[in-house]
Write a structure and sequence with these properties.
Keywords: Ribonucleoprotein, Ribosomal protein, RNA-binding, rRNA-binding. With 104 residues, this protein is an all-beta fold. It folds into two domains: 64 residues, SH3 type barrels, CATH 2.30.30.30; 26 residues, no CATH class. The protein contains no helices and ten strands. The strands form three sheets. Strands 6-3-2-1-7-8 form a six-stranded antiparallel beta sheet, with no helix packed on it. A two-stranded antiparallel sheet has the order 4-5. It has a two-stranded antiparallel sheet with strand order 9-10.
Length: 104
Amino acid sequence: MRVKKGDLVEVIAGKDRGKRGKVLRVIPREDRVIVEGINIVHRHMRPTPDMPQGGIVKNEAPIHISNVMLVCPNCDEKTRIGATYLEDGQKVRKCKKCDEVVDK
């Protein structure tokens, strides 16, 4: 997967199209990511010892990886990602638009 935890992504399809958020969790087995503030669902929680009152809780639900694009930290545009190798042999991700390295 080309998106990692902590990356800034933009939603390109679905009800939250155009919104940006930080990746909180990547689920590679299901090709899904959980993005902060995106795909909010309401869970009706029964009272438990942890939450004695119960109620409606808002959580982020996973969104398919094909519905998000990485936002390049250098050019601040949504972009596709390519891979390249540095002089020391380390594989890094790079922006296809500005050709800069995305990884820290």
